Amino acid sequence: MCLGIVRDVRTVGRNGTLRYEPKELTLEQMQLISDLYDVGDLKKTVRKISIERVPGSPGHSKVRDYIRDSLVDLRWKVEFDIFTEEVPILGSVTFHNIIARHNPHAKRILMLGCHYDSKYFKEFKFEGATDSAVSCALLLNMARALHGEILRNEIGLMLVFFDGEEAIQKWSNKDSLYGARHLAEVWEKEGILDRIDLFLLLDLIGAKDLTFNSLIPRTHNWFQRLVQLEDQLIKTGILKTNRTIFKFITGSDPKDDHIPFAKRQVPVIHLIAADYPAFWHLPEDVEENVDYNTTEQVGLVLKMFVMEYLLSAPTFKPHYVSSNSNGADVLKNYLPLLLGICGLILVLIYRKLNMYRK
Ligand SMILES: [Zn+2]
User: Fold this and answer.
1) Element of type H or E holding 113
2) Active-site residue 52, yes or no?
3) Which is the catalytic residue, given 203, 230, 257, 308?
4) Within a domain: 350
5) Is 257 inside a domain boundary?
6) Residue 5 pLDDT
7) How is residue 35 annotated by DSSP?
8) Can you give the residue range of the structural domain that contains 152?
9) Distance between Cα 157 and ligand 1 center (Å)
10) Is 319:165 a contact under the CB 8 Å cutoff?
11) DSSP calls for 146-192
12) How many distinct structural domains can be found in the chain?
């Protein structure tokens, strides 16, 4: 079903009472963000992740280290949520969700996620390029491109790389979404779910014929903003194409890592291919079959969405810092203010001295 214009007030957060209307980016800001894009980096990153990475395998730990190191290099705070579970075929497996925060002290969180494990197949090595190496690469590429552009204010960006999304044997409530189920449960107890404004989940991205539909009624109006942004990027010529990927059409929502979060009332935008790639769960889901024009287009729209969201956030208030931060963090946050005060004092002293000289 094609949707008309949704005019509801855009709200965020679990209880849905927090109203948020980000300020639209100017054409100059859009151009600047688009210029930060580096297709070479995206391709390189997909190649690094698009290897067999079944939980507990050497490829899995290689990719896990790569994701962690990439974000630590950008000075993000990276943590693991580690737990062990009995699974079919593989026995006891230790899973690692990767959680990276740009601004760990932010009161509110914009969360983007994808899964980094690959599905186990006995008969062949499965690379899972679109499932979901490309999604992970898009998140890392976004972190690199926006490095230096994201401000530390009251809304922080968080990237979550889920482990164990895939069923090991046959999809069921118990054999699937291992990482997402664990993390949502832990975060509910810790109160972190209450801080999540919105959760964008990426999956099955990278095929040439990709389109996204608006799958969750609660976030239709947020999905609509993605449609508008893509439209603006095409009309201004920043995107050199006429083909839209974000379609304001409803569809049935496939089970994925967002389920344990949506069940707990976290607002979710599920960005998954409306038609699964033709090589879904087949040996042909390899990096060589990734369409980078489509992938770049998704990346650009997402960067615009994230920048618009974060740039409109209320400015950082120091009392959020003081509760759980170390001295270095406090110094970093107060340094501009201290330097400003020192500068002012020096100017006043200089003026006073000059007065006496006259
Ligand atoms: Zn899959």
Assistant:
1) strand 108-115
2) no
3) 203
4) no
5) yes
6) 59
7) H
8) 10-312
9) 26
10) no
11) TTTTS--SSEEEEEEEES--S-SSS--SSSS-HHHHHHHHHHHHHT-
12) 1
Q: How far is CA 262 from the centre of its chain?
A: 16
| Beta strand 246-250 pairing with 212-214 | parallel
The pLDDT, as a whole number, for residue 334 is 62
Question: Angle formed by the axes of helices 292-311 and 220-235, to 10°?
Answer: 110
pLDDT given at position 291: 97
Beta-ladder partners of 100 = 78, 159
What is the rounded distance in angstroms from the CA atom of residue 204 to the CA atom of residue 133?
9
Amino acid symbol at 146: L
CA of 341 to the centre of ligand 1 (A): 55
The whole-number pLDDT of residue 123 equals 96
pTM, 2 dp: 0.87
Q: Are 138 and 295 in contact (CB under 8 A)?
A: yes
If you measure from the C-alpha of residue 229 to the centroid of ligand 1, how many angstroms do you get, rounded to a whole number? 28
Q: Which of 52, 127, 163, 165 is catalytic?
A: 165
Q: From the first residue on, what is the mean pLDDT of each consecutive set of 10 residues in the chain (358 residues)?
A: 64 90 94 87 97 98 98 97 98 98 94 98 97 98 92 92 98 98 98 97 98 97 97 97 97 97 98 97 98 96 96 66 43 67 79 67
Residue the block writes with tokens 């002293």: 349
What CATH number is associated with residue 67? 3.40.630.10
Token pair of 66 as six digits: 């790569």
Tokens representing 130? Answer: 């679109």
The per-residue pLDDT for 327 is 47
Q: Say if 147 falls within a structural domain.
A: yes
- Per-residue pLDDT at 84: 98
Q: How far is the CA of 120 from the centre of ligand 1 (A)?
A: 9
Q: Is 165 a residue of the active site?
A: yes
Q: Are 121 and 279 in contact (CB under 8 A)?
A: no
**In a domain? residue 239:** yes
